[in-house]
Amino acid sequence: TQLLEQSPQFLSIQEGENLTVYCNSSSVFSSLQWYRQEPGEGPVLLVTVVTGGEVKKLKRLTFQFGDARKDSSLHITAAQPGDTGLYLCAGAEGGATNKLIFGTGTLLAVQP
Amino acid sequence: GAVVSQHPSWVICKSGTSVKIECRSLDFQATTMFWYRQFPKQSLMLMATSNEGSKATYEQGVEKDKFLINHASLTLSTLTVTSAHPEDSSFYICSAQALTSTDTQYFGPGTRLTVL
User: Fold this and answer.
1) Residue A16: left (phi > 0), alpha (psi -120 to 50), or beta?
2) pLDDT tens string B79-109
């Protein structure tokens, strides 16, 4: 069974601080996605990374895919209260079904 | 584009009854839909993969006779929780994979099930 471990599990920071969330696995994925989910809603896709070593930026969010395509990180610069939510990484198995294996999740709270 | 809806958004039922949850792709066709469940402050756990016109593939540990999945058309999949018990209370989320873009799953807003 493929597992994606995220760290930290919980993070409470002040507005303006920077943070990094890690997503690690012993398995190789064809691609890796990051989602943000708010309470009572479905997850919303932030980014998909496909190539080992790839770095993508989305405003204050920077995503990196590990060279071996087993791990990824999400860095948020100058966090804002609107960044509060559950951050999930998900690895795509590829192949015919292309199932997603979700990480354990990181609950972020940004205090104003 | 690429909107997925779920109905109902929340449901409360008595123990022993069955509940049906619908997942619809509103503006695209989806050969494959996925059903997940999520407990509070936890991640999404894949329950089953639903393919249009064929039997669903269930993940290990998920009872296929308890969680009935039907994918009758390219825009609709249903999940029926049979003989529901309080431990089935959870947030159920579906996603749909477009015919033209199998790399992306589009997620529904989820259905909150509470079994009394």
Assistant:
1) left
2) 999 999 999 999 999 999 887 766 788 999 9
